[in-house]
Amino acid sequence: MSSWLSRTAARCGAVPAVLALAALAALAGCADTGQLHDAGATRPLSAPTSPPTPVALWAAVGAAPTPSASATQPVGALTPVPGITVSGADLRSVDVHQLLRQDPQLKDAERTALAGCTGCQVLDPRYADLVGDGGAELITAVLTADQHAYLHVYQLRDHQVLAVPEISVLPGFTAQTVGRDLVVNEPTSAATETSSTYRWDGGQLVRVETKFTGPDTVATPDCQPGVVTPPYPTGKSSRPQPSAVPSAAPAATPSGGSAYLPPTAPPGAKASASPKSGAGPVMSAAPSNPGPANTAPPNTGPANTAPVNPAPSNTALSKPTSERTS
Question: What global pTM score does this model have?
């Protein structure tokens, strides 16, 4: 009896324990929804990371240094003018006529121009840095009697005057400097002009660009709506004749009835009356309309009062009197 009671009490005591655990679990589940919980101490925040820094695989390759004037312009590339030396560092002290006379590359016609001749001219010297070494080159030109012009550039180096190869240009030219470029404008015709740009390449002035200015050489005809320009010259003999257009008027009857024939009738057709004096075919861009309105002939006088297609005479349709009496 006592053992049964003890077992029963044990079972009865276990039931409340189980119920208590279930209640705690339910309470814990309900508390998770919409509730704040203390999860302990907050972890320290890490500092923001910066973007990665690019690392070059090879050292940066710098731009090649600008070649010096002595490296790209050896004295042997240009011709020194014999007998001309400059004590200072400026070509403005050099007499241009004496410099040209001593230049071995001058042509005979240029030497004649230096001596003086009709139509000859030696332009006053101009100075500009075309090489880029900080010094100013001497620029001049010689116009000869045979209508030729030659542009000359001289450079100073180590107290020597070096002659740059000459440039042949057309008479009436103009020249200007744009930075270190030499721009030469030449009249190629009365309305066109050629603009050439020369640049120093280390030994001479090289043409690097050419532009043509002036009106277009190919004329473009103006287009006007509604106007057709014939592709043939004006004149009666050279102008093509219009082709014959079929007429809407009926043909004349063989009985000799008078009928109007329009001017576009085929050759050989015969009409008893002619249109009004001075009238002729009119050429128009509008299409013809051979409708009923065009069947009526124009008013050309009393000769056209007869119907267009008269019926045969009644006398030709009736029997002779002798046949009726018999």
Answer: 0.45
Question: Which DSSP state fits 195?
Answer: E
Check: CB of residue 112 under 8 Å from CB of residue 120. yes
**In contact, 162 and 153? CB cutoff 8 Å:** no
pLDDT in tens, 69-127: 333 344 446 889 999 999 888 899 999 999 999 999 999 999 999 999 988 999 999 99
Quick check: helix, strand or coil at residue 93?
Answer: helix
Q: Where are the domains of the chain?
A: 74-213
Task: Report yes or no: 196 and 207 within 8 Å, Cβ to Cβ.
Answer: yes
**Measured between alpha carbons, how far is 264 from 269 in angstroms, rounded to an integer?**
10
Q: Six-digit token pair at 126?
A: 């101009």
What is d(CA 138, CA 94) in angstroms, rounded to the nearest whole number?
Answer: 9
Amino acid at 79: T
Cα separation, 313 vs 108, in Å, equals 106
Strands 193-200, 137-143: pairing is: unpaired
Q: Name the amino acid, one letter, at 240.
A: P
